[in-house]
């Protein structure tokens, strides 16, 4: 704990360089509003779209208002993280001025989605700095961000995943015909996605072979690596997982089924964050034994990647009663529309208690190899 304050000092990091910058800001706004200020002192750290770290205004509006997405404008004092495990704080580095310390930080809450945040990059930075932080470590974050490697690990652990094809940048440039032939073997329709993006950015549902090239190029605007997944007939069900306290096993929330209105073809960005007709059933109308099986699979998927802190695991439930893993999100959204906090609230852990649980879990774990 900081020597300058009796409270636990939390650096909330948000924004970032990915296409999910705005959603990270919305998540941060909701989380900072929920933090118990009697126990925690919050240091808001924004990362601008160009990668600059700044001390963000504490009163900054971080919400979607009239369809307008928030962002970090980069106008605050510039910050740097010293690569000294004994330093324990942030440095203010203004041009022409001597760097000054912002004070010790007890724990970092990196609310970053997508590349350059959720993919192991900031986790590696925090490991080098000897900082405690919320969420998965370097490897679990990287594997959880890359849908292709995620599915490979799950397959190796005997977990059920659907058919898919990955296309690297080199393969698309040099072996396009071969990769498209592999994709055609999946049948139609397929979903073409950036391999390392989230919030449904850059996804296309393809129903015609003539549209495959354009769909891959759309995904490549977000990530040069692409994954193409066979469409799975079934209901989309999500489940939250939390790392167990002390040596207790990981635990799963009640699941949620996202029910879309407005005629959307799939759960895209606009539907997730801007559609007022979206609702969730928690728990969904499923047999009790099916729900328990899903919760067990969610914990297995979490543990297979060696996740820490939290994750949301997404499934398909087929008409035959089979569960198929879709993907994992190691830093799920905490916006008012997000499934993760709603599932845990329905499971008996409300929003402030959930945030406190994540911070206490991070504070209890050691730094370095574990």
Automatic annotation (TrEMBL):
Cofactor(s) this protein cannot do without: Mg(2+); Mn(2+)
EC identifiers of the protein: 6.3.2.4
Protein's UniProt keywords contain ATP-binding: yes
The keyword Cell wall biogenesis/degradation belongs to this UniProt entry's keyword annotation: yes
GO function terms (MF aspect): ligase activity
Domain ATP-grasp stretches: 151-360
Subcellular compartments: Cytoplasm
Entry keywords, A to Z: ATP-binding, Cell shape, Cell wall biogenesis/degradation, Cytoplasm, Ligase, Magnesium, Manganese, Metal-binding, Nucleotide-binding, Peptidoglycan synthesis
Primary enzyme class: ligase
PROSITE patterns per the UniProt record, alphabetical: ATP_GRASP (PS50975), DALA_DALA_LIGASE_1 (PS00843), DALA_DALA_LIGASE_2 (PS00844)
Name of the protein described by the UniProt record: D-alanine--D-alanine ligase
Gene name of the encoded protein: ddl
